[in-house]
């Protein structure tokens, strides 16, 4: 693979500065709260609790929008897949179509931030999803940080999925995905976006990469299972801040964490 960038050394220095400088949380947190555009991951509900079957959240997209213009998540009842890109919410349903969503719609789980890349590099030879993850991993100064990731370009293929709306009593996510619909998109431009979260956060997050896809024409996408990137740009936003919101519900009050 051939990768053009300003140079690995420069890229790594940028990350190291972000990771090690200015007693970082305070520094970035201050930026976040003063300007509303800092490097904080704002999350609705712990991933593990959601995945146990808590899909009846009461946070609205309008509330989410106060904390980011970029992100991924789920919709009430687990209907479809959420993409938030450039401040616009999309719901990719099992028909494969991306629908625009308004601010009154509710979510049981979401991760959003303001995307401001710290590392950018371009790719002009085919890279698989696995190769991209391995490559980005090598650039990161530590596994113990949250990173927002955006890959924009031409994809030789993108395999994505969506899940159907559930009814109560909600089954766990492991059951829901058995009925997922998989879309095999080919020769498509678009954006893969999401987060790489550290395992040290336990079941609060999905550990590793969790990314969704939205086509360049904003018509299709889904939860990403695999892709082949032909050419494009990979951007990484080092995200030292983490804010999580617990939604009040009887189900959550009684939820028993696995550890
Ligand atoms: Zn997903």
What's the CATH topology label?
A: 60s Ribosomal Protein L30, Chain: A
By DSSP, the count of extended strands is: 16
The structural domain count equals 1
What is the overall number of helices? 7
- First CA to last CA: what distance? 41 Å
Give an overview in words.
Helices cover 21% and strands 41% of the residues. It has 259 residues and is of the alpha+beta class. The chain has a single domain, classed as 2-Layer Sandwich (60s Ribosomal Protein L30, Chain: A), CATH 3.30.1330. Strands 1, 10, 11, 12, 13, 14 and 15 form a 7-stranded antiparallel β-sheet that branches. A 7-stranded mixed β-sheet has the order 7-6-5-4-9-2-16, with helices on one face. Strands 3-8 form a two-stranded antiparallel sheet. The longest helix has 13 residues, at 8-20. Residues 1-37 have low confidence and may be disordered. The structure holds zinc ion. Zinc ion binds at residues 72, 81, 210, 212, 223. Zinc ion (ZN) is lined by residues 72, 81, 210, 212, 223.
Question: Layout of SSEs?
Answer:
Layout: E1 3-4, H1 8-20, H2 24-35, E2 40-44, H3 47-51, E3 59-60, H4 61-64, E4 70-74, E5 81-85, E6 88-92, E7 98-100, E8 106-107, E9 109-113, E10 119-123, E11 127-128, H5 129-139, E12 146-162, H6 173-176, E13 181-197, E14 208-215, E15 221-239, E16 241-245, H7 250-254
Parallel strand pairs: 2-16
Antiparallel strand pairs: 1-10, 2-9, 3-8, 4-5, 4-9, 5-6, 6-7, 10-15, 11-15, 12-13, 12-15, 13-14, 14-15
The structure holds zinc ion.
């Amino acid at each position: 693979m051939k990768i053009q960038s300003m140079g690995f050394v420069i890229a790594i220095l940028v990350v190291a500065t972000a990771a090690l400088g200015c007693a970082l949380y305070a520094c970035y947190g201050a930026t976040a709260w003063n300007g509303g555009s800092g490097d904080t991951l704002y999350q609705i509900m712990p991933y593990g609790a959601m995945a146990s079957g808590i899909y009846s959240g009461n946070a609205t997209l309008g509330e989410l929008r106060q904390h980011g213009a970029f992100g991924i998540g789920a919709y009430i009842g687990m209907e479809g897949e959420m993409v938030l890109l450039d401040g616009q919410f999309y719901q990719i349903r099992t028909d494969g179509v991306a629908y625009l969503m308004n601010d009154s719609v509710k979510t049981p789980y979401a991760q959003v931030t303001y995307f401001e890349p710290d590392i950018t590099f371009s790719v002009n030879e085919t890279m698989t999803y696995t190769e991209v993850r391995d490559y980005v991993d090598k650039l990161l100064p530590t596994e113990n940080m949250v990173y927002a990731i955006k890959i924009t370009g031409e994809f030789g293929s993108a395999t994505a999925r969506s899940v159907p709306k559930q009814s109560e009593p909600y089954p766990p996510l492991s059951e829901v995905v058995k009925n997922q619909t998989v879309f095999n998109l080919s020769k498509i431009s678009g954006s893969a976006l999401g987060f790489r979260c550290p395992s040290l956060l336990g079941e609060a997050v999905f550990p590793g990469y969790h990314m969704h896809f939205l086509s360049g024409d904003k018509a299709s996408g889904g939860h990403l299972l695999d892709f082949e990137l032909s050419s494009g740009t990979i951007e990484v936003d080092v995200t030292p801040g983490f804010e999580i919101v617990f939604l009040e519900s009887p189900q959550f009050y009684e939820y028993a964490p696995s550890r």
